[in-house]
Amino acid sequence: MRYVFLSLAAHLLFVAPAAAAEVARPLPPTPMLSEVVRLGGLKARIVSGRITFSATRLGNMNNAAKGEKREERVSIRIAAESLAADYEMSTADEEFRLQVTGPGEFHVRRLAKGDSGPLPAGFHQRADEPMSLTLGTPPDERVYRAPSLWHLFLMEPEACRAHLAPLLQSLDPKWNLAGTSGQVEAALREAAAEGNLPDPQRWAALVEQLGDERYSRRAAADRELRAMGRVVFTYLQGLDRDRLDAEQHYRVRRIVMALAANMNNDLPPEIARWLAGDPVVWLALLSRDDESTRRLAAERLEALLGEPISFDPAADPATRAEQIEQLRQEVQGR
């Protein structure tokens, strides 16, 4: 079981150190895109920390508008098995572009016109790859990569709240990504303090039981995994199917399909339950200003790794930074 969660750590690529707290300029209104979203022409959801797109109607759309303060253009092509969208907005000092190339693949960019525009920012999500947030331009460009949106917010909260949240807000005005990430972190701390954390060993045992020779045992494991819901979804998705027998493979696939069909936007308690079994998440929380949070994170990281770690929650910031970097290399090397 440890391999599954630690393999996620290996996908968290090197990130540049975060700069001091930044305040990004709010994104200008995007009325044409907002109307498309309102009418259901493009619907975004966050599932397992990744953004997925769908539409409530099929068809094509091409439109453009030019006003005193902005120019807009939108193109959407929706068929039974494909979805593509391209939106551009231009003002006097910046450009914004959203390109959706598939249900789970998109790119969004914000570029400055001249020196008075906002800090250039881009976000990219491709299937089966870490997502990335890019800020600035070479040679001062900073790139942050992580396997999910929530990992990214936990790893780099200042950069994400200042720059990523405004970029993605146009996809759904009801989203409050910065607020949700704060709730997720609070739920993680509460779960760690109460000892109310997921049991990956139990999940592995149930998957093993799915291949039991007795039907009653296979059925019981199937029911228990389904009842766990969201918390076990990503674990089942990440299983190496080559290590499963035919019965296990069949049942895991059916459970994942059933859970996916009933999932809506990620909710903080469910996100926290999912992330609580990931060492990378607790490694991120070792950097928090609050010493009690650092202590909880260190305890949980030791439990997941199954051995003591070299980290002093009460040490000075420079010492803690060195210890965290050493732990990061150890976790990624497992």
Class per helix and strand makeup: alpha+beta
N/C terminus separation? 13 Å
Q: N-to-C SSE series?
A: HHEEEEEEEEEEHHHHHHHHHHH
Taken as a percent bin, the fraction of beta residues is 15-25%
Helix content: 40-55%
Helix tally equals: 13
Strands side by side in the biggest sheet = 3-4-5-6-7-8-9-10
Regions with pLDDT < 50 over 5+ consecutive residues? 1-21
Oligomer: single chain
Q: What is the molecular shape? A: flat
Integer-rounded radius of gyration:
22 Å
Q: How many beta-strand segments?
A: 10
Major β-sheet annotation: 8 strands, antiparallel
Determine the mean pLDDT. Answer: 86
Description of the structure:
The chain is flat. The protein has helices at residues 2-10, 31-38, 149-155, 157-169, 177-194, 200-209, 215-228, 230-237, 246-261, 268-275, 279-285, 291-305, 317-332; strands spanning 43-47, 50-54, 59-66, 71-79, 82-90, 94-102, 105-112, 121-125, 131-135, 142-146. Mean pLDDT is 86; it is low at 1-21. The strands form two sheets. An eight-stranded antiparallel sheet has the order 3-4-5-6-7-8-9-10, covered by helices on one side. A two-stranded antiparallel sheet has the order 1-2. It is α+β, with helices and mostly antiparallel strands. Helix 3 (149-155) packs across helix 4 (157-169) and helix 8 packs across helix 9. The chain has 13 helices and ten strands. It starts with a helix and ends with a helix.
